[in-house]
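Appendix B. One record, verbatim.
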Amino acid sequence: MGAMPATHALIELLGDVALLLWGVHMVRTGILRAFGGDLRQLLGRALRNRLAACLAGLGVTVALQSSTATGMMATSFLADGVIGLMPALAVMLGANAGTALVVWALSFDITIVFPALIFVGLVIFRTGTRTRSRNLGRATIGLGLVLLSLHLLVGTIVPDTVAPEARELISAITREPLPVLVMAALITWAMHSSIAAVLVIVSLADSGLVTPLAALAMVLGANLGSALNPLLAATSGDRNALRLPIGNLFNRIAGCVAVLPFLPETAAYLSQVEPDPGRMAAGFHLLFNVVLALLFILPLASQAKLLEKLIPDRPRSDDPASPRYLDAASLDVPRVALANASREALRMADVVEEMLKGSRELLRRDDNRLAAELRRMDDVLDRLHGSLKRFLGELSQRELSEEDAARLAHVQTVALNLEHAGDIIDKGVLTLAAKRIRRHLRLTGRQAAEAEAMHDHLLAQLRLAGAVFMGDDLRSALRLVEEKERFREFERAAAESQFAELAEGPDQAETSSLHLDVVRDLKRVDAHLAAIAHPLLERSNLLRPSRLVRLPRPGDAQ
């Protein structure tokens, strides 16, 4: 076969690499959708010591075929304060070894099975009745596409089909290890997948287009480049989360610096041990990451302390309306993004709690400064809701499993109801409290006791709503809705006593009317808090669509 034109070869190569990247993406998203929650729980349980964390990072990464996704899970635990920096760094050591293990396994000639994987995956995807089975089918198709792309890569970059000018150019630019390392690092950064990048390097080595020395230098570059994406994604986030990718990058740089001077000798030795150039490159990739894990796992505690000293926590923003947990980098891992969004929604609940406590105070004492502060709290609540709504809007554009989509809808429901509750407190209860202060009105002993009881009830409802939201506690959800009936009793008692108070004079009549308006506004707040339980009750088929009894229509059977 004659040499194909350079443009033709480049187009085919780009298509093969794109298919490889898409296959890796399908495997990752399929496994994340099918077992993402289970893998996250597994990782969380294993973060108690560095060795278990390292092994868990390896196992989760082999399943996901993405060290970035594993790193994002560890970062979420780190940002939540669930774990320290040391076990998170251990997770990354294991994750790096996990990607290398995947590449090593795929470097063997198993491309013959790709038709069966694609066919079986399609059958599982089309016939599966459960979401998990369909996602497993998706992951199986993705693995088949990975092997297919490797098969196509081998055919595209066979030396006999590459023009002599292209071979000379490749030979010229891969002569010196350091420039090759930098070039491979940049390409891996652009590809956002170290597995795909190293598999391309394996194919180049198999074809003989690059020397064993150049292949090893490119593997080092791929290891370095794969550490750049998490670092760049974390630069605008929390300092605690920033330390993890910096520590991971430092480990990679240290390894490259240690190995690069001895790369010619290493290439010569490995060529004798493993004559196949592709498997030699894949084996070196695995050996490099395993040795790094063994070398750095013991001094991780000292490394963590050094990182905490060099990268101190950024001072908290004085603006309470500034979101703290909405990290844009987490959008690539929906479970992590939803956990961050849930934490921000709980901040909104904290603001509503402060507004309820403040409104209770304003109904029993005159304090114009407190009234102004509570008005500002509603602005804080509105801005937090706006930030959260934009974040969830971006997340909704990503590929979400049914479970993640349901959780996103629940977070939206919670945020919307909390924002509405704050508006009612601001425009209703606080306005009435300001009117009471302005007209020098005083609630009677009975009215003050009722107002105190209603606020205590709402604060308890708010805490119960938080438990329902974070824990999906069905019993608490039922209790949250059932407790709403208490406000009917408050409203009925206030209405019945209003007529008796009219006889006590015009001042008492005005106070009684104001108190009744407060009861009705607080009842609306309670309705919004109870609505937080509705998504969970709907999923459990425990919420009736309407309380109305349908009247017979004309023409219905008598």
